[in-house]
Amino acid sequence: MIKPIPSKKLLVIVLSCMSCCVFAQSKTSDFVLQDQAKLSAIKKQYQSGDAAISKEITALSAEADQDLTAGPFSVTLQKTRMAPSGDMHDYVSQAPYWWADSAKPDGKPYIRRDGERNPELKLLHDDSQMVKLCDVVKTLSSAYYFTGKEQYAQKAAELLKIWFVDPATRMNPNLNYAQYIPGINDGRGIGIIETRNLVAIPDAVAMLQGSKGLSDELTTGIKKWFIEYVEWLQTSKNGTSEHKELNNHGTNYDMQLVDFALFIGNTKLAHDVITKTSIPRFEKQFTLDGEQPLELARTKSWGYSSFNLEAWTRLSIMADKLGIDLWHTETKDGRGIKKCIVWMLPYLLKEKEWTYKQIEKMNYNEMLYICNVASAKYADVDFQKVFAMYPQAKLWMLY
To answer: pTM higher than 0.90 for the full model?
Structure first.
């Protein structure tokens, strides 16, 4: 499984339906994964001196203060391997679960060891640069939204310009060379899962609206990058390959495409992905009982099961904006997201022992995020046990 986005404390927001917008390169941005009305209400609580909210915003601001010296982040920095294209602006990463074959003099072609991350990955830095960018920009933009301190917005805008707009440092909007396997290929569709971190950018841009740091020119430039990347996702060899993946890769492909489509205003594309691609995945991914066989077969079965459900949760949040109730959608024989969440709960609550293969320590962050959001959708499911066992997840969580 790819390295999770760093877990910083941010607000859990339950999204409400919003009107579809017309595909256009707008100079303003709407929230994609968060509810603007609820964010605004929390901001007013903070401004009125609510003690609990003030404590959390103070902690958030402290993190943002540290991030004022972070970066810059770019695929052109710390470059240790150039893409076959010879262009330093092309993102490059190595397949995480592939290792040198000790039986071969040069180790090639590499062989797969599922779930075991090759330490060679640390020699490449494009992935870590992107993860850090998204983490820092989320913190800075959130801190600006609640406090109004321009230094946070200025820094976030600076980092966004470097990654998406500045000709000297911007990333080319493609993943032609992501997760290459030495001795086998120069890149593959599966690598597209690495840009799932970028789903944080649309909401970050929305949080920066009204700041002096985020100019119309910069917003337009960022959206132009995503317009080009959305086109690449749909038309490239790697993009069409990832679209066909049946497991969590397919779900995360859909999740990214819908997120980015909403950001650039292409609601028709977002609607079509959910109705024509995502919903049909239920048949392949879910059992009638709510198991996810394709994820349970992995060496990190808990990690991948919750990882896949996290993507489905975000897809459901965005579907709400399009008037699609993905939360309660089921196949004719009853397969759906709700059953998968309910199936996972006894293990999260430690009422059942996880007996599937899990070579790493079980991490509960993704399931806690899922429960926080899903608790507003399933009144007949008792999530209070979860919140009692993990009280820190009640109000604050990574979006």
So the answer is: yes
